[in-house]
Amino acid sequence: MNTFAPLAAARPSSVFVPAFDAEAARRDFPILATPVIHGRAFLDSAASAQKPMQVIDAVRRCYEAEYANIHRGVYELSALATKNFEVARDKVRTFLNARESSEIIFVRGGTEGVNLVAYAYGDKFIGEGDEIILTYLEHHSNIVPWQLLAERVGAKIRPVPIDDAGELIMEEYERLLGPRTKLVAVTHASNALGTLPPVKQMIEMAHAQGAVVLIDGAQGAPHLKVDVQDLDCDFYVFSGHKVYGPSGIGVLYGKKAHLLAMPPWQGGGDMIETVSFEKTTFAPPPNKFEAGTPHISGATGLAAAIDYVTGLGLENIAAHEHSLLEEATARMRQIPGVRIYGEAKNKAAILSFMIDGAHPHDVGTIFDHHGVAVRAGHHCAQPVMERYGIPGTVRASFALYNTRHDVNLLIEAVDKVKEIFK
Ligand code: PMP
After folding, report:
1. Quick one: which of 246, 321, 358, 389 has the fewest CB in 10 Å?
2. Residue 119 contacts residue 265 (beta carbons within 8 Å)
3. How far does residue 44's CA lie from ligand 1's centre (Å)?
4. What is the mean pLDDT of residues 133-139?
5. Which domains are seen in the chain, by residue range?
6. Which candidate in 31, 53, 144, 380 is catalytic?
7. How many CA atoms lie within 13 A of 56 on its CB side?
8. What share of the chain is helix, strand, coil (3-state, %, to 5)?
9. Separation of 139 CA from ligand 1 center, angstroms?
10. How far is Cα 289 from Cα 193, in angstroms, rounded to an integer?
11. For 193-239, what is each residue's pLDDT tens digit?
């Protein structure tokens, strides 16, 4: 069990010292003790985070003692499984501070959430000559569904460029926004550079033009306190596997008015009110968008993951990750021949870099031999790479279970690469 110190009481935030014991948290993650990763630095949590015992236990408990199909059963076990599924939905509602749990739709992940909105909202409300604003920071999963929509309906994609530091050029955003803008889709945190765009301001500006906004929270939800009411976003998506939960489960939040106005995007069981060959009527949201048997154990696991991170305190986790990012960044900057990509003022704990003369894939392989697991390549964000004219980067991403030891291993691995390529 993780034992962590309570939050330091009522200290002014400028001198706030996060009370977070990463060493204790590591003990919650059994995989970190297995031979394949023990003693090594796992710095690829932005791709997918490891799972604490609390999540593994919840999934096992679901299958061992509380499993049946949900919603349709008239027997006790099905009622129990249904209750757990709906409790999980309400937990997500609290996590995002949504108004109602009917605004929370379970999907396979962030990607499916974006696709759902592109089909169900996009096909109905976006048409010929309308414009969709994206940014150069987006992951492919927040680009391609909009391109497919644009092709279907004859809309145009307008991307907001970034500057050398990886910040969105807000003057360009302002210039692109206009009466033809129907939707803005922007990441809460860039997976390639770590940039945190000023999403609240962007939402306000989009709303002033009558456009709706989708926030891709795949990298936001694991690191930032999300409040969809305060953000006032129209849609928010995230993936369970990046918040220490199971893969194959994710969330789409949508404002109720939108969800009521949107048609279903997939048909099947559980999303209907009545079916006949003459006419079928649909269930209200969220069921309208959840055709078929959902990922029942995934929802339970996601609820346990939410309990886990909120128990540790998202602010504590973020402060811990940030201190590792700062240390790693400062040390990297001192190494000649290392170039950091993404120096935005506000960043998630992601460090993207290149080492002179070495291809990112070679760096990744050499790092692996020296006990450091990172991602190398374009990170499914090719427009960012194109912006810098590079094939990809090496990306180290920090999670709650990383420590200064991992930073030391990372820096040592950079030295090894430099020795090989000197
Ligand atoms: N957006 C961002 C910013 C991401 O980092 C990712 C995953 N790498 C996604 C969307 C897609 O998430 P998933 O693959 O879990 O659907």
Report:
1. 389
2. yes
3. 13
4. 98
5. 22-51+313-420 (3.90.1150.10), 55-310 (3.40.640.10)
6. 380
7. 8
8. 45, 15, 40
9. 7
10. 33
11. 999 999 999 999 999 999 999 999 999 999 999 999 999 999 999 99
H or E element at residue 373: strand 372-373
Mean pLDDT throughout 23-45? 96
Task: Tell me the best of 45, 106, 108, 111 to mutate to test the pocket of ligand 1, counting ligand atoms within 8 Å of each CB and taking the most.
Answer: 111
Mutate to test the pocket of ligand 1, among 112, 190, 219, 235 (most ligand atoms within 8 A of CB): 219
Kindly report the length of the chain.
422
Unique residue bearing structure tokens 């950079």: 414
**Which residue type, as a one-letter code, is found at position 197?**
P
CA of 348 to the centre of ligand 1 (A): 15
Q: SS3 of 345, please?
A: coil
227: which residues sit within 8 A by CB, 6+ positions away? Answer: 96, 97
pLDDT-based confidence at residue 72 (cuts at 50, 70, 90): confident
Residue 62 annotated in active site: no
Task: Answer yes or no: is the C-beta of 89 below 6 A from any ligand 1 atom.
Answer: no
Phi, psi of 238 (to 5 degrees): -155, 165
Segments of 263-318 assigned E as strands: 272-274, 281-282
Q: Are 353 and 393 in contact (CB under 8 A)?
A: yes
**What percent of the chain clears pLDDT 90, i.e. is strictly above it?**
94
pLDDT band with cut points at 50, 70 and 90 for residue 388:
very high
What's the distance, CA 232 to chain centroid?
Answer: 18
Whether residue 1 has pLDDT greater than 50 = no
- Distance from C-alpha of 129 to C-alpha of 331, rounded to nearest angstrom: 49
